[in-house]
Amino acid sequence: MNYQNATPIQEQAIPKIIEGKDLIACAQTGTGKTAAYLLPLLDKISHAKHGTTSTLILVPTRELATQIDEQVTGFGYFVEASSIAIYGGGKSENWEQQKRALTSGADIIIATPGRLIAHLQMGYVKFDTLKYLVLDEADKMMDMGFSDDILNIVRQLPKQRQTLLFSATMPSKIRDFSRQILNEPEEIRLAVSKPAAGIDQQFYMAFDRQKIYLLEHIIKTQDVQSMVLFTSQKAAVAGIVRAISKLGYEAQGISSDRTQEEREQIMRDFKNKKFPILVATDVLSRGIDIDSLSHVVNYDIPRAAEDYVHRIGRTARAATKGTAITFIADQDQDRVVKIEKLIEREVEKQNITEALGLGPAPEFDPKRFSGLHGKIGGRPERGGRSGGGSRDRGPRPEGGDRGPRSGGGRDGSRPARNGAPDPKDPKHQERIAKAQAALAALDAGQAPAVPYERPPRAPRPEGETRPARPPREPRTPRPEGENQAREPRAEGEEGQRRRKRGGRNRGGRGPRPEGAAPAAEGQAAAPSAE
């Protein structure tokens, strides 16, 4: 496995695990924490009775479950220990295979909480002999809403067990959760949320339309052996893959839209160097473990600053070197500030698009774009002030007045909203005056100052005549002897009165008596004498 020296997390965790103590460990990705718990557990399993499940490892994603299962195979090459990864998706045969492993008693079960709950509900899973419980990427499982599922699983485990919790971050919810399942744990905390020292972080300013060409420049000018490109939107994966392919480079995309078999095959091909560029979503940022990954590209900025650390943590693993490249668009600038605050470092923002003939790139000015919702032109977040503090306008001159307010809104207190015109705009005032004059003229019974005139038709070109209308089709003659469908109209004076009233006499009204005057408007007609 090419391990020569223990990493800091391994130096501190392995002795405590061997002693049998519960452990809560906080360490960044890429520090060897998986080996920190697998190596001592495999040592304990090698001296125990086989054929029963002794270890349960809970993970947030199927990719991480597969990765740990592969590491168990590598670390336990000389140890008689069986393992299986339990996760959702795939064919029905996978369910049956998982069921056989759970009932026969594999030594190590690596499972996602949701799929393990489904097996537990069937009634054939027994954990009476379980001795070790591991929660890997506990913070990610909390973020994905697995806390209730984990507690349901823990209730079905023996109380006498050793529990190990590993997390990349340590928010208060993790500490509160650990008190429910751990017993007087030892705590290890190493450089929370800090990228590995071997990562060369590079930030490039670019508009969205410039990113693909900037990526082409980086591929040509840097020694790219293998690259994982992350995007926050799974809908963008296919488009980025097509754009990279048009540039002449082979790439594949992997997201939750792919079937489990397709994702596993793509990962195998990428690890075997069959293509150099893999485009992935944030779901895979913790489940991708590739040796000698030279570059990680953040095609856009992740929503959470912690996800940035997980993304770039795919490179420079196990004290190696790697490059992390991040493209910064206008809408991402406020997120960059949060990332730099988290990693406690300010990264230089490079602006090279104009030198490459791509036009100017956005200037880095995070205050101007604070609060955008992830796209240019997005509305600011509610509240208007970051962090609840007041706006820093500086002190008012001693004895000075507030000064004039900016135009728009009530009393000019804020800019007009919803595109409303500025009342102080001379052009707007001129339009209002014209409209008021036209209304006054109409009220006085006068015609508008500028009556509407129909625009003249364009003259017909000389020599061109109006096209003749096509002849009408002759009507089909009515068959002889067939009567007209409707009744003939009434004749004479009575017929005219009927047509004015809209039809025949209704409601029993008869004809007006001879010599009688018609009824006044609003008064009922006299009843018929008949």
From TrEMBL:
SUPFAM superfamilies: P-loop containing nucleoside triphosphate hydrolases (SSF52540)
Stretches the record annotates as Disordered: 357-530
MF (Gene Ontology): ATP binding; hydrolase activity; nucleic acid binding; RNA helicase activity
Keywords, sorted A to Z: ATP-binding, Helicase, Hydrolase, Nucleotide-binding
A Pfam short name: DEAD
Bias (Basic residues) ranges: 497-509
Compositionally skewed regions (Low complexity) per UniProt: 434-449, 513-530
UniProt keyword annotation of ATP-binding present: yes
Bias-annotated ranges (Basic and acidic residues): 378-404, 422-433, 454-496
Record domain Helicase C-terminal: where: 213-358
Gene Ontology annotations for the cellular component aspect, listed alphabetically: cytosol
Family as reported in the entry's similarity comment: Belongs to the DEAD box helicase family.
Protein name stated in the entry: DEAD/DEAH box helicase
